[in-house]
């Protein structure tokens, strides 16, 4: 299993595999439902190459019938559960993908990549991202076209509110800093920690369809669990 997704009050768990398939499990019985999204149904018919492990499964916050599937090779698929077909395919120019996350309006999403970059997409424009930038690079930041310095992978990204990103990794190679970054516009704040295993934002509503406004972050480190308070402008631990 390479990815797991479950939404509030849903009775289904979506399991992504290294083989690139999605299996649906009933929470109450913990039995497979029989519904499977096979990788060869997600790719273009003319494409023969395997898209790689399925790294991310995200339910559209405004339409539970739509799933966003993110594959290692940079292929991102918008899948319609009822009709069992692909709505849109997005191929990231950066190739190696690590994570994806929806905006609360369900019309845009952000993807993170192996080269330390982020891409913002609109579901109506699958040909190219609306924006691509590398937050911690000396170049390729927002509005900067100079040559980028090499950065570590952004292993996970989410939105603490629309247009405000929270992500792990992405620092330039050789940096002694570790932790999470909060980025809004061109402003970045690094929350220094030990190496991050995973994190989740805390919101004041369980409904993903509501406008996002995180009040805290739970961060799993290798040897401890910490919580950050985002309820005021000065982030506290």
From TrEMBL:
Keywords: Exocytosis. Pfam families: LLGL, WD40. The keyword ATP-binding does not apply. GO terms for cellular component: plasma membrane; SNARE complex. GO terms for molecular function: GTPase activator activity; myosin II binding; syntaxin binding. GO terms for biological process: exocytosis; Golgi to plasma membrane transport. Transmembrane segments: none annotated. Residues 149-233 form the Lethal giant larvae homologue domain. SMART domains: WD40 (SM00320). Gene3D superfamilies: YVTN repeat-like/Quinoprotein amine dehydrogenase (2.130.10.10). InterPro entries: LLGL2, WD40/YVTN_repeat-like_dom_sf, WD40_repeat_dom_sf, WD40_rpt. PANTHER family: LETHAL 2 GIANT LARVAE PROTEIN (PTHR10241), TOMOSYN, ISOFORM C (PTHR10241:SF25). Belongs to the WD repeat L(2)GL family. This is Syntaxin-binding 5-like, partial. It comes from Paramuricea clavata (Red gorgonian).
């Amino acid at each position: 299993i390479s990815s797991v997704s479950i939404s509030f009050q849903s009775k289904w768990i979506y399991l992504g595999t290294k083989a690139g398939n999605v299996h649906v499990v009933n929470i109450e019985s913990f039995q497979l439902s029989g519904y499977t999204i096979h990788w060869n149904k997600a790719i273009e018919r003319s494409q023969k190459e395997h898209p790689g492990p399925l790294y991310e499964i995200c339910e559209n916050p405004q339409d539970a019938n739509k799933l966003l599937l993110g594959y290692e090779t940079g292929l991102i698929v918008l899948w319609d559960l009822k009709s069992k077909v692909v709505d849109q395919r997005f191929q990231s120019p950066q190739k190696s993908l690590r994570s994806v996350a929806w905006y609360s309006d369900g019309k845009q999403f952000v993807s993170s990549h192996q080269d330390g970059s982020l891409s913002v997409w609109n579901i109506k424009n699958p040909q190219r991202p609306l924006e691509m930038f590398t937050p911690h690079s000396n170049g390729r930041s927002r509005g900067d076209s100079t040559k980028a310095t090499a950065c570590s992978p952004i292993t996970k990204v989410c939105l603490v509110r629309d247009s405000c990103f929270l992500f792990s990794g992405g620092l330039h190679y050789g940096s002694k800093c570790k932790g999470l970054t909060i980025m809004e516009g061109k402003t970045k704040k690094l929350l220094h920690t030990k190496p991050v295993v995973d994190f989740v934002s805390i919101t004041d509503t369980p409904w993903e369809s509501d406008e996002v406004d995180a009040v805290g972050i739970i961060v799993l480190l290798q040897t401890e669990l910490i919580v950050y308070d985002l309820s005021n402008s000065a982030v506290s631990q």
